Amino acid sequence: xxxxxxxxxxxxxxxxxxxxxxxxxxxxxxxxxxxxxxxxxxxxxxxxxxxxxxxxxxxxxxxxxxxxxxxxxxxxxxxxxxxxxxxxxxxxxxxxxxxxxxxxxxxxxxxxxxxxxxxxxxxxxxxxxxxxxxxxxxxxxxxxxxxxxxxxxxxxxxxxxxxxxxxxxxxxxxxxxxxxxxxxxxxxxxxxxxxxxxxxxxxxxxxxxxxxxxxxxxxxxxxxxxxxxxxxxxxxxxxxxxxxxxxxxxxxxxxxxxxxxxxxxxxxxxxxxxxxxxxxxxxxxxxxxxxxxxxxxxxxxxxxxxxxxxxxxxxxxxxxxxxxxxxxxxxxxxxxxxxxxxxxxxxxxxxxxxxxxxxxxxxxxxxxxxxxxxxxxxxxxxxxxxxxxxxxxxxxxxxxxxxxxxxxxxxxxxxxxxxxxxxxxxxxxxxxxxxxxxxxxxxxxxxxxxxxxxxxxxxxx
Amino acid sequence: xxxxxxxxxxxxxxxxxxxxxxxxxxxxxxxxxxxxxxxxxxxxxxxxxxxxxxxxxxxxxxxxxxxxxxxxxxxxxxxxxxxxxxxxxxxxxxxxxxxxxxxxxxxxxxxxxxxxxxxxxxxxxxxxxxxxxxxxxxxxxxxxxxxxxxxxxxxxxxxxxxxxxxxxxxxxxxxxxxxxxxxxxxxxxxxxxxxxxxxxxxxxxxxxxxxxxxxxxxxxxxxxxxxxxxxxxxxxxxxxxxxxxxxxxxxxxxxxxxxxxxxxxxxxxxxxxxxxxxxxxxxxxxxxxxxxxxxxxxxxxxxxxxxxxxxxxxxxxxxxxxxxxxxxxxxxxxxxxxxxxxxxxxxxxxxxxxxxxxxxxxxxxxxxxxxxxxxxxxxxxxxxxxxxxxxxxxxxxxxxxxxxxxxxxxxxxxxxxxxxxxxxxxxxxxxxxxxxxxxxxxxxxxxxxxxxxxxxxxxxx
Lengths: 461, 461
Description:
The structure is a homodimer. By secondary structure, chain A is of the alpha+beta class.
């Protein structure tokens, strides 16, 4: 057994993999605080809306074009559509669909889009096995917990060195959640975590292309498979998280392993998850807020703008630096220039503002050309300063310290409901279907069969 | 477009991803030297034999137990069996089967098991699309070339830091090969390489468990999928190999990028691939040779052995250090103690010597307990010194500088044929079937449909 190599003192130290496996396996519904259960319902509903909103996206269509000819029997449903395939295919596609609009949630400390890979894997499995909503909500909360704790221990180095944190950690969260939903015992749960960790992957070089969302779909699929492999008895290291040749050694610094397990079962990572008000990179949101505020306060005529100066913190500027002149909707989502331009031009920043045609439209191109961005180390993440200079020399300013949808200014339940409604309409759902899903999601733990949430599409007649 | 960030001089520099894509897309059969074509045939035959030998292994059975319920239509065949599934499932399973015996080939500079992920992906695709042997052999040679060149640029750091090189690089080789077989144009080929690179994964913490071979099956499947995604138009970075946030930045040192493309089309990595004489870790082979030599030369009675001293280079000792007392066949494959013991006890080191029962048998346990291993920095990789001290005080020694099957003492074609025959018999193939496959593989480039090589199993009556 390889354990000796990781426990050089030969003592009774229990590694992080085992501690996580025990925590997941032994967790009871009653262990979950009420506010965390509620946050889980919000996270799930927000995720489902994002999946519906992305279900007809080009990226989803192309992924299906490649995967469908290889897909297995109709065990689960592509949300917002009527195709049904095996659970692995569906987990991948539903995660991609829910991420492609860049409207999904964010664990702020790690910038992990926490719910996407976990919920996509879980809902596919839950639909196949007719699981109830309490089982799925419980597993979702645990999966997010494990995913974000692993992310905490690896951050900020993980993102800084070029990895895609949601992908690297998401596969482990998906395995944890699916392992819980499948009632794995502790040794099998530990192996599921290991088989997930050895599949951790995803380069941020894919950002701005379909490959970014693919990373997350891949994580969802592989986490589910890790749990299914462990269930049938496939073997793996029982120390894959903490080992120097395992996750911590490969992606981070093994000395920070304690962050994975400190306060486990007491502190809950879902408390640090925020829901976006705009379907684009979270780093752009305060700039959008500032522009929307200026537009209302000063009834801005965009054709009279001589120049516009945006000041943000250095990290935000670094993330967005490539994208002053975005060529596609996907790159527009990480463009401060484009987000500011459409906020002022359109007065709303929704899914249509990131269509390829909107990004290449003449008015957006012209306004972007008058925008300058600069960083100020005195600003922290989430702070933005926007100054507009009109052609008559008049200047107006806006300063945002926390964007709408941040942890400091969270979306309320009514706003999450409203966001869901808008996304569900993109998928063509009618009012009755939307109301039914909303009722089910806000009482998710009382739902007898989560499959109804996957089979959302109302046929045309 | 993200290219500017990687070409800060804005010049006409062509990145490694583009250079590889051009090389693969434009390569013609006539560009391949005759000796490399022949090495490709040897590699393919050796791989197919390993796949047959592992086709009924527990690991293969468990993998199928998890994957089969999710598998798609019968496009390709699990070699050595009669199950047929979609190409992605088959690529994964056939790679795992071909690696699980630890009998597959080795690119010596990187310790990449070069053929496994590439051939497994290719044969599945080739069977589905009724491709001919020349197309497959050509694509195999190119896939191995790309895989090992990437490995050269990342080694030795890749393995030293805990990654599984065959998995990390194999996905890229499989994508290159499948992209060639699918006739992708240069932009799509570059995206296939990128979609593969963003899936690069695999921890060596899995060594000694089924997870090790799973890493390689995962690579085969994902490389094939990367090519299929690129084919339908899925987008990805065109700079995913050389980018600081891409493969070189995440797994290695971007300054060594030149090793990927230097001499491309002139020097061929297949020249550096060796075929194993024994189904276990290549680092154990010289010790096995030494023991077999001693057994013959001195008609060793193992019950008279008082002690046995094995001296190897420090790296070899490090790789094997965990496994003085292996508990399973898989750990026995990386145990100098076990390999030496069975070589002396059985006089042959084949697949049965690594069955769990053989590893736990009393005579093997007893002899292993009398073995000591030590490293000598004066020895280089492949050198081994074995000394046996008998209970009457008599001492005999053997010194091996290059193990059988090394690049310095390669297996001849007749030995590869013989190895294949033994492995095919494990899968229950009869003499007629074996002769037919051998004839097809030694003239692979003349075969009209490679699918016949996948459909190898002869029904019982």
